[in-house]
């Protein structure tokens, strides 16, 4: 992701999750810039990381203003509690090199980094929260201490090239997700067929996309078209029978049916697909494989990733 540095502070409620690890060579000294930034920067030589030593104030080999660094980054408190680690997120971050927000800032640190370099930087928490994170210091952070940033620069490039790389990475991730979805829908389809057999469901139909549906009470009205506003009552459950929610007793809606524009991507794909098969007034069972529901995205502890969903629905109204 392409971030501005001031947006890097994560949700801090779970900040104490990870504990410190890694090399702590006491003899490996920190250097300090005139602006008060303590640092150690390493370069690769003959397959090993070597401390670059003191970096001159007029050194121009590092990243320049306007460029973007793709890097892995972690930072931790003075007592070594890890607050953020991009490797735990599964991908590097992209940081634009901007004007420093204060002396001895993260922006200063970025200008010391070259592609392939690794660096360790100590930055004042008081200045970070006041000038970069722009929010009050949380209780577990002690004023007057520092955060230690660990950076591993993979690329230094122009903003245009970084955006192109980001788009390529997004497309690759989407293709990989689609391939996983193809395999998952096969797994889910087999489970749904077993469920249909186990429950003795009759007159089961299947859409081209893969949603199974049973019309339990035919309606006499028309079918909705894409763009029509439909009102639907529903009960949501898992295949094991556990009910998750119902529009009939939803206090937020006062028990009113749920309304949405059909075929506009404002609901899960399985709903757009399944509701389109029904006439106004119909009642039906929709059995939706996880890639057409919430897919790999868990919805809290109540709904794990790759959950197959059953909806008992009633198409109450259609408005053009």
TrEMBL record:
Membrane-spanning residues: none
Keywords (alphabetical) are: Isomerase, Rotamase
InterPro entries on file: PPIase_dom_sf, PPIase_FKBP_dom
Top-rank lineage group of the source organism = Bacteria
Top EC class for this record = isomerase
A molecular function (GO) term: peptidyl-prolyl cis-trans isomerase activity
Which parts of the sequence belong to the PPIase FKBP-type domain?
227-319
Listed name of the protein:
Peptidyl-prolyl cis-trans isomerase
Q: What is its EC number?
A: 5.2.1.8
């Amino acid at each position: 992701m392409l971030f501005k540095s001031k947006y890097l502070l994560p949700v801090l409620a779970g900040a104490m999750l990870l504990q410190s690890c890694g090399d702590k060579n006491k003899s490996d000294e920190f250097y300090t810039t005139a602006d008060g930034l303590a640092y150690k920067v390493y370069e690769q030589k003959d397959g090993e990381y070597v401390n670059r030593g003191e970096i001159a104030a007029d050194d121009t080999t590092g990243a320049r203003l306007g460029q973007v660094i793709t890097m892995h980054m972690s930072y931790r408190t003075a007592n070594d509690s890890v607050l953020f680690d991009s490797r735990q997120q599964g991908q590097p971050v992209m940081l634009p090199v901007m004007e420093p927000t204060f002396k001895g800032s993260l922006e200063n640190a970025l200008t010391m980094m070259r592609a392939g370099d690794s660096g360790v930087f100590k930055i004042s928490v008081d200045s970070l929260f006041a000038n970069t994170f722009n929010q009050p210091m949380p209780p577990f952070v002690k004023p007057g201490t520092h955060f230690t940033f660990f950076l591993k620069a993979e690329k230094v490039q122009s903003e245009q090239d970084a955006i192109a790389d980001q788009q390529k990475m997004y497309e690759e991730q989407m293709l990989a997700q689609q391939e996983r979805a193809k395999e998952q829908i096969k797994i889910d389809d087999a489970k749904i067929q077993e469920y249909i057999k186990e429950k003795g469901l009759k007159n089961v139909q299947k859409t081209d996309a893969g949603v199974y549906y049973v019309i339990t009470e035919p309606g006499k009205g028309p079918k909705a078209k894409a763009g029509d506003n439909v009102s639907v009552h529903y009960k949501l459950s898992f295949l094991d029978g556990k009910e998750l929610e119902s529009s009939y007793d939803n206090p937020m809606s006062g028990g009113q049916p749920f309304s949405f524009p059909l075929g506009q991507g404002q609901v899960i794909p399985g709903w757009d697909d399944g509701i389109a098969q029904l006439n106004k007034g119909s009642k039906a069972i929709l059995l939706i494989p996880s890639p057409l529901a919430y897919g790999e995205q868990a919805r809290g502890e109540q709904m794990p990733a790759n959950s197959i969903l059953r909806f008992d629905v009633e198409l109450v109204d259609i408005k053009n």
